[in-house]
Amino acid sequence: MAKSFKLTLKRSLIGCTQSQRDAVRCLGMARRHQTVEVKDNPANRGQILKVQHMLNVEVVR
User: Fold this and answer.
1) How far is CA 60 from CA 4, 13, 17, in A?
2) Which of 5, 10, 19, 55 shows a CA-CA span of 20 to 30 A to 43?
3) What percent of the chain has pLDDT over 70?
4) pTM of the predicted structure, to 2 decimals
């Protein structure tokens, strides 16, 4: 199991549902091409799965 994930927002939030916007905001991102590192836990994994089509995800061990 990974220790954390490195996430980069690659698409705009324009045209997304409010729940997808909330998931991106809770992951700590506000702008395109912004990169954050989040811990690996079930809550973060669920948010990542919700908006996986807008993210680049890298596993950090």
Assistant:
1) 5, 25, 29
2) 10
3) 98
4) 0.89
